[in-house]
Amino acid sequence: MREDLTEEQRSAIAYIVPSGYHTPPRWIVERGHQPHIARRAAASGHVLLRRSIAMQPHLPADVVDHLAEDEDFFVRLTLCQSCQDAPHALVLEMYTHWHGLKWPFLRYHPNFARPGLARFADHPDPRLRRAALEDPEAGPELILRLIDDPEVGWWALRDPRLPGQELRRRIGVPDSARDAAANPALPPATMHRLLDLSGVARVAGPSGIR
């Protein structure tokens, strides 16, 4: 992965692709943000150089497009994990199909949540039904639609868009009370009442309010 090698020289050297993450070469770490370095690494036949450049937080649009179509799964995955410019469609694809421990964190990618995800509310894949809840334009009807879903319903119970009347009702349903109690839209008075019922002692704060 030395910078001074030509692609012909590089291709003549046998190497083993590690099964996990690798240490990217210093010249890409330090100068990978430069367009000519990014384009050179993205076009390389050496998969570890392409994975390395995909670790950059920002890349030129043409480089992002090129890496998003790479034949190597981990080039595409690394792009979604590290680059804020990774396209929405690819981030959603990785979120749906990758089974690594960190797959839920792809929900926090800046290009993940976009209007239109509600279309997946009835999708057979539970991950995509979960993604439907990320639609910023979806209203309470979507939350109510998914609230009894055996695989994603607990997320719906915690969604602040859940109508107040239904939220209060769910507090009294044994199977949903725990997640309903975690809903940030729960009124403070109800929170205090739940704590009292649970036997949590009230402690005076700095202002003397208990």
Task: Explain what this protein looks like in three dimensions.
Helix content is 47%, strand content 0%. The protein has 210 residues and is mainly alpha-helical. Helix 4 (47-53) runs parallel beside helix 6 (73-82) and helix 11 packs across helix 12.
Task: Sum up the structure in keywords.
47% helix, 210 residues, single chain, mainly alpha, 13 helices, elongated
Topology of this protein?
Blueprint: H1 7-11, H2 26-31, H3 35-42, H4 47-53, H5 61-68, H6 73-82, H7 88-97, H8 126-132, H9 140-146, H10 153-157, H11 164-171, H12 174-180, H13 188-197
Question: Shape from CA axes?
Answer: elongated
**Largest pleated sheet:** none
Strand content: under 5%
Q: Give helix % range.
A: 40-55%
- The overall strand count is 0
Distance between the termini: 63 Å
**Which sequence of SSEs, written as H and E, runs from N to C?**
HHHHHHHHHHHHH
Give unreliable regions as ranges.
none
Mean pLDDT equals 93
- Helical segment count: 13
Specify Rg, calculated over alpha carbons. 24 Å
**Class per helix and strand makeup:** mainly alpha
